[in-house]
Each structure stands twice: as structure tokens, then as C-alpha cells.
Write a structure and sequence with these properties.
The structure is a single chain. Helix 3 runs parallel beside helix 4 and helix 13 runs parallel beside helix 20. The strands form four sheets. Strands 2-1-4-7-8-9 form a six-stranded antiparallel β-sheet. By secondary structure, the chain is α/β, with parallel strands linked by helices. It starts with a strand and ends with a helix.
Length: 617
Amino acid sequence: MKIKKIIIENFRGYKKRTVIDLNNFIVFVGKNDAGKSTILEALDIFFGNSNPDSGDACVSGDATKVRIGCVFTDFPSELVIDSSNSTSLEKEYLLNIDGDLEIHKIYNCTSPRPKCNSAVAIANHPLEPSCFKLLEQSINNLRNIAKKSKIDLSNIDQTRKADLRQAIRESVDNLELSISEVSLLKKVDGQTILDNLEKHFPIYALFKSDRPSTDQDAEAQDPMKMAVKSAIKEQEEKLVELTEIIKKQVQKVAEKTVEKVQEFSEDLANTLTPKVVNKNWDTLFSVSLTGDDEIPVNKRGSGVRRLILLSFFRAQAEQEAVEAQANGIIYAIEEPETSQHPKNQKLLLDALLDLVENQGCQIMLTTHTPVLIRNLREENLRFIKQNEEGPYIEPCDETNSSEIVESLGVLPDHSVKVFFGVEGRNDINFLKTISKNLSKEDLSIPDLAKAEDEGRLVFIPLGGSSLDLWVSRINGLNRPQFYLMDRDNEPPKDAKYQSQFDSFKNEGHNAWITKRLELENYIHPDLIKADYTNYSGGGRHFENVPRLFAQAIHENSGSTKSWQEVILDKEKLKKKESKAKKKLNSIYASKMTKELLDTHDPDGELISWLQDIGAAL
């Protein structure tokens, strides 16, 4: 499952019911104490990793009705909600008006130890009296309801509650469907509907900004302990055999010792019984991490410690997901930039975005740094503000860009020489990688990665408020602005972003549209064919290089699934193309020499862009 929305009411600063729209990668921005961490901690309570306390109730709200809810998508098409037979959420009328699963948990925070006293599905559910509480009925009650309604059960499996419920509903002319709160906590046959639904929830892992960062913390040790236990389990048979050998040898020595004691005192010997007890093997091992210089993590810098602990945190969450057979992971990370050099902040952002693209995770961050914000599109940002009624959330767009800049508390950086807008992370990777090589052969071509590290160049993915946010900063610095867009459409069609290109040109900025489909088409096909002889690309301007490369990788892998079957699975195809693009823009872009580029791009299109930026730098 994935979270589509969060609902909070009467929780800390959020008195009014607040609905927060999400996608797979969300960053919450706002001033300190605006309510960013509250959202992440509310989810931690919802997923059962922590408990609310009496202080979590909004001081001006209703402490008996602290509400935390989630709207889920991507739930299983069939699942068990009671007994053992499968059904669907749609058949059981447990979905909201949009066809999503919406669950609210309500907590009473007036007691010293608050607990969830109600859990409901907000669902388009039957109000017709005979059908309203069918989910709360035992199998005997369902049979009796069917008999009283004179429903023919001859073709119904009467051992399956889901089938009985469906038969009862189908016998009614008008179910009177309406949005209702359907209780999920009533126990039927020893279990609740919520218990069964929670088995399909994703793992929620919260990494707080104020946690300690050493390799001996519980969070760090848990995945290491799990690794020890896993290794021991693999050798369990041999270790049991070894344990028995050792116990027998030690037992012999113990028995001989008693015999010797008997020679001195028979009474004393009679009170002694040889008994050999062994500890569990996993208690004999402890794990710590050291570098090549043998310096323990505990003695490293705070930034290094935090990065390592974040990796431990991920390892633990992934292990929990495997063990629980969970449907996905949600990583919630407070201020990932803490103690990190700006270069590491960018590397960390890339790693997190890769998790979303390649592993299907959801990620939520809070941040105060522009390094993270300026590399994201508007749909990834949520701006939290305060007014007299408490915090509220706004999407990020051109109307609040200046407020967001102010909330970050960052002054314009006057070391910036060039602002370079491109379509996305893959394009940034391609340009940085290929320019590094070409700059060694041609001094007029800049090393864009080096320029970015030095703060002289700012890359911005095009689109929405991420563009508006940073254009507003750069405009005031009177620095050159460059924009590069893929054509995407083959002539005579206009380029996909033709209107945006025209707008940039009219504003006096430097803007280009590729003459080819996209930047991957500037990679010489011979480089790919050297590794994948089955690659069918021929260097044509409008061939889909990532897809053709993904096909070559797939067919070279020995998979029993044909490429046609992969194409039919849109999600699988998307992941394979994403991995192919990443490989093209890193490994193969790094192999491009000036000689290869001159051959493959005889018009010097790519080099001319880089030279123009080099002159501005």
C-alpha cells in the first residue's frame, strides 16, 4: 500500500481537520515549530511504532477525539478481512468515494496512558439497515439474517462469511450507499477487521533529527544483530554438532572433578552435580564499524556518524519489511541535511530519489536547506505556515515562492555565476559526467560537476515552483540563465516544451531544444554495442535509446520472460527503463570522448551548449 493523504485533527497544533496530499516523494518546508515534525510523528503513532501521550492533544481542541488518518492506494485486489476466506475491499464497501481505503484512528488523550478507542473506515457504505453492520456479524448471525430475508443459499458456500454478506446485499434493491464511518475494531471470531488490514500496511520508519549517532545505538545494532543471527542460522546444524562435542568434553572434565573431590570428602561430592550450560551463539558476537585507519564510528565526525546511522536505519526497515512481508516501506526522515556538507546533501538526495524510482518506496522529509529544495519539482514540496488557527499546508507554486525562500532563512549566494535549468536528475548526471571528460580535452568546455561543487553553477530541474523559487533568487543576482529541454516530439511536430522555450527566449535567457529525442541520443551506440552485442540501436535521432538499452539488458539476462511480456507490464517496463537511463547517463556518458562526440554529433550541438556555459562561468 501507499499513502495518498494524511488526515490530522486535534493533534498538537492541528486543531482543525487538516488533509495533506502526498505522492511518492514529499518534502515539508517551513519555519521552526511550524508543524513539520508533527506530521511525521502522527504517522508513527498511526502505524503503531509509538504511543500518544496526554500532551499530544491540541490544548484548544477536543482531547477525546484526537484523530490521525491515512488514505491508501495500491492495496491488494483480494485480501482476508475476517476468518480465512478472501474478499475485496470493493465488494465489502470499505472504499471511499474515490475508490481508496481511508482509515481514521481516534485517540482519547485525557487519560495518563492514551489509547485508540475507535478506528473507522471512511467508506461509501450501505445505510440500508439489514446491510449496515454486516461486517460485525458472526457466521451464524449471517446465516440467520439470510434465512429471515428468505434468501436462497443453495448455491452459496455457507462456510464463507464474505459469500454470505454478498448474497444478503444482492437481495436488497437499494443499498442506500453513503459516506459513513464503518467500525473496524469490533472483534468477530477473535479478530478485528483492522488487525487484518494492518497486515498489508507498509512499514513506516521514522528517523528523527535529534537521535544520537553512534554505532552502538539500538537502531544501529539491530540490523547488525540480525546479520549475526542470520549467519548463525545458516550454520545451525554444524554449530549444534559442535556444541554437543564441547558439552560432552566439558562434562567429562566436570565428572572427573567430582570424582577427585570425593577422595577428599564424600559428603561434599554428593552435593555436586556436573551441569554444562551453553549461551546462545548470537550473544558471543558484537559488531562495530571501523574505517581503513581503524578509527571506530563513535570517534568519527558527526556528519559521517549520521550517514552511517541512516544506512543502519534503512537496513533495519528493509529487514522488517521482509520479515513482515509488508507491502512497501515509507521512510520519514527529519532534516537529512543535519551535519552534512552540501555535496553530501546532494548525494543523499540522489540516493533517496533512487529508492523511490527503483524500489517503489515512499519518502517524506523535513528540511531547512535550499540544496534539497532547489533540486525538486513543485509536486514534491509542501509549505507549512502558521496563522491564528494553527498550522496549515499549501502546495508550492509561484504565489508563495518568496515566502518559501524567506522561511528557509537563506540569503542569496553571490558566488553563483550561472543558473542552468534542465528537465531532471538524469540530464544533470549526463551533463556533469560528459563535461568532466570533455573538459580534459578542450579547455573551453567546463567541468560542470566541479563548477557545481564550487557553488559557481546551480542546476535546477525545470517545472513549477522549483523553477519559480530559484529564478526569484537568481534574477536579483543578475546572472546568466540557461535552459535545456528535450525535443521529445519528432518534426514536423513542435517540441514538447516549445511554448516554455519561446517564453525563455522572449525574457532574454539562453535556451536550447535538442535536435534529437533526448540527451541519451548523444551517446555513441558503439559504446553500448561493445558491452551488449544484441543492442539494436543505430544512433538514429528519434529512437528510444533507454528502451532499446533496457531491452538489450533484459534479453541478455537470461530471463525466461519475453520482452513483449515486459512491455505489457507498465510498472515493470518503467523500472527497467529508469535503470537503463541511470546506466546510460553515468557509465556510458563517462566513456564519451571528444572524438566519439565529433563523429556522433558532427554539428557540434552538445559542445556548443557547454562552451556557452563555460564562457559564462
